[in-house]
Amino acid sequence: MGEPVEIDTGQVADQRTVYDAQRGRCPVAHEDGAWVVLRHAEVVAAATDPATYSSDVSSRRAIPNSLDGAEHAAYRAVVDRYLTPGRVAREEPQCRAHAAAIVDALPRDTTVKTVGGIGVPYAVRSQSTWLGWRPDLEDDLVAWMQDNHAATRSGDRARTAEVAERFDRMVHTLLDARRDAPAADVTGELLGETVDGRPLTDEEVVSILRNWTAGDLGSLATSVGVIVHFLATNPAVQRVVRAQVEAGDRAAVEAAVEEILRIDDPFVANRRVATREAELGGETIPEGGRVLLNWTAANRDPLVFGDPDEYDPAGHAAANLVFGIGPHVCPGRDLTLMELRVVVEELLARTSWIEPAPDRPAVRETPPVGGWARVPVVLR
Ligand code: HEM
């Protein structure tokens, strides 16, 4: 007999099981020079104590993500103005039209791709419409999104920085064109914003747009994969959500989306740096210590949620950390929930059933990216 042959099934281990095992042993794990916070109580404690756990973690100034205190509050107020419930409601018809067109164009009774076939085009088109960006930028944005994802997966900071710079160049070109031909859309409006009585610089506008784009495009596309996978593999939940869509119960569909993302949170972690020596989960974090708030692990903490895989939207809503907590809590939550609800509504209303593809398995993303890289399904 020769050597056993290793067959590459394309399968990547589910990082959630690793976090689940790790969190039980150690709520705050010291790994590669950083303190990884895995338990719900400690993640909440650190996220709501910005004086001790600063967001000023990178050499690049990210607006508003890397700012602290009063400076953060001033820029955050600008960002919040673009994501109010009224603004979100205005975007809904455009998102619905994109979702309907994408779902209608997919074949029935054969394998289709969820992330590449639905999530990516839906995220890019919805966002371009919101920001007032030309539809012909779609290919560039999709390519950028894939490179950004690959760079995050590689864990190579230099590569991530290079991808971020490429985005900056793309948006700078767009802003220059805007100056020549001003438009009354979100990008045009941002160019007229002021903070502390002075206009935002181009650098600041680009940084704000990069954070929206990085947050929106990648997470939204991945979230579509997570939700469709969950519905396809949990027929009982699919039946419940179908009934909620049919009844027009928007709040229930959004609650379902948020609970599915809690069980399999694709937005894994955010960084902090300790401003002083501090105790967390029995560990002493030194001043300057790097801290990673692991939302995915905290969202599956059995001390808070019991069986983390149990689907209970109402029971788990109050402790759900998918959109974070504290001063940096996601300002895009309402927009995201509307966008995900609309794509779920259109997908379920335009199909009679969704099931996992019989010929190809779903494949997990490569850590540190969460969720599924490929979710082949059959639409009926
Ligand atoms: C599935 C989609 C999304 C998820 C899971 C998500 C999750 C999060 C989380 C956990 C945070 C907290 C970060 C921290 O504490 O350091 C955050 C912050 C943020 N998110 Fe989202 N987000 C999503 C989509 C969006 C969208 C659509 C936008 C905007 C259009 C957005 C914009 C932001 C911004 C600007 C921040 C930083 C806020 C601050 O520093 O004050 N996100 N997001």
Summed up, what is this model?
The chain has 380 residues and is α+β, with helices and mostly antiparallel strands.
Q: Can you offer a commentary on this structure?
A:
The protein has 380 residues and is an alpha+beta fold. The chain has a single domain (58-263, 315-379), classed as Orthogonal Bundle (Cytochrome p450). It is built from 15 helices and 14 strands. It has helices at 15-25, 40-47, 69-81, 85-105, 115-131, 138-154, 157-180, 186-191, 202-233, 235-246, 250-263, 295-298, 302-305, 313-316, 333-349, and strands spanning 28-31, 34-37, 53-54, 111-113, 194-195, 198-199, 269-274, 278-280, 283-285, 290-294, 354-356, 363-364, 372-374, 376-379. Strand 8 and strand 9 form a beta hairpin.
Strand order of the largest sheet: 1-2-10-7-3
Uncertain spans: 1-9
Kindly state the percentage of residues in helix: 40-55%
Instruction: Tell me the major beta sheet.
Output: 5 strands, mixed
User: Can you give the mean pLDDT?
Assistant: 92
Supply the number of structural domains: 1
Radius of gyration: 21 Å
Query: Would you report the number of β strands?
Result: 14
Topology readout:
Elements: H1 15-25, E1 28-31, E2 34-37, H2 40-47, E3 53-54, H3 69-81, H4 85-105, E4 111-113, H5 115-131, H6 138-154, H7 157-180, H8 186-191, E5 194-195, E6 198-199, H9 202-233, H10 235-246, H11 250-263, E7 269-274, E8 278-280, E9 283-285, E10 290-294, H12 295-298, H13 302-305, H14 313-316, H15 333-349, E11 354-356, E12 363-364, E13 372-374, E14 376-379
Parallel strand pairs: 2-10
Antiparallel strand pairs: 1-2, 3-7, 4-14, 5-6, 7-10, 8-9, 11-14, 12-13
Helix pairs in contact: 4-5, 4-15, 5-9, 6-7, 7-9, 9-10, 9-15, 10-15, 11-15
The structure holds protoporphyrin IX containing FE.
